[in-house]
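1st attempt posting a full record on here, be nice pls
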Amino acid sequence: MWNASDGSSYGYTIKIDSKTDDAVFSNGQARILTSHRDGSARLWDATDGSAAGQTMQHEDWVNGAVFNHDDTRVLTWSNDGTARMWDVNDGLPVGQPIRHHYLTVDDYGVIGASFNQNETRILTWSNEAVALWNVEIDDDFQKEYLTLMVNVVTGTTMDDYGNISLLSTKKWKECRSKYIRIAFPTSQRGAGLLGHP
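the predicted structure (as tokens):
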């Protein structure tokens, strides 16, 4: 950390056990978000450089990461071909990975991602393709299917006793397909809903 007015050291150095490709401040300036070649993204306290949350883990290099506007979510993108959203408070993923289906053998994963202004869409890009994803929650969705919508958006399910568990990829895809059939007319199903560009 450096003083922008005179270039002097601010007083601490964050020592990290992996090569770092990117670092950004949160919008409120309270935290620092770093991206690493070991597949992790990490949060740090901007006042003293101490760890400030759980490690967010991809399966390959994390090429970059950003906070959303109120610093409650982190968006990361990686050489594993995905972008992911994370809860800042507990470091857990929000929903399923956004898989960039347009990667070729000459691509090096997802090299960039960003929220739109109202955070209802995410833009991802690789060396050879750009994809737009709809991550908006529909508050007017039919009430009898709200549980299904929550299953798809969060990637989890709840049993009759209130126990929450992660959906398998196969089960999540089944729920997503059902959700798309219910929520959208046939003519709108190619619009990029919940991970389908």
